[in-house]
Design goal:
single chain, alpha+beta, two-stranded antiparallel ribbon, 2 helices, 2 strands, 40% helix, 21% strand, globular
């Protein structure tokens, strides 16, 4: 379920990018921090595609008390 929230957020940010410039990393970090504060997940990884390049913004951990999420974190899907 938590991964689904991350995917939904990522999809929403990509959809925004089709119509306007994507938010910078600091703005995405602020969104993720808000979600973490609301306990909507323990960690997030967001990929933003812009101009043929990918940016990865992360926050939190893959599991409560676990190591932080980074661009190399593996997620189980399904």
């Amino acid at each position: 379920m938590r991964l689904l929230h991350a995917a939904a957020l990522a999809a929403g940010l990509v959809a925004i990018g089709a119509a306007a410039a994507l938010p910078d990393d600091a703005a995405v970090q602020a969104i993720l921090a808000e979600r973490l504060a609301q306990r909507q997940g323990v960690g997030f990884a967001v990929v933003l595609l812009e101009g043929g390049r990918a940016r990865i913004v992360t926050a939190g951990a893959a599991q409560a008390g676990g190591p932080g999420i980074d661009a190399d974190t593996l997620f189980e899907i399904g």
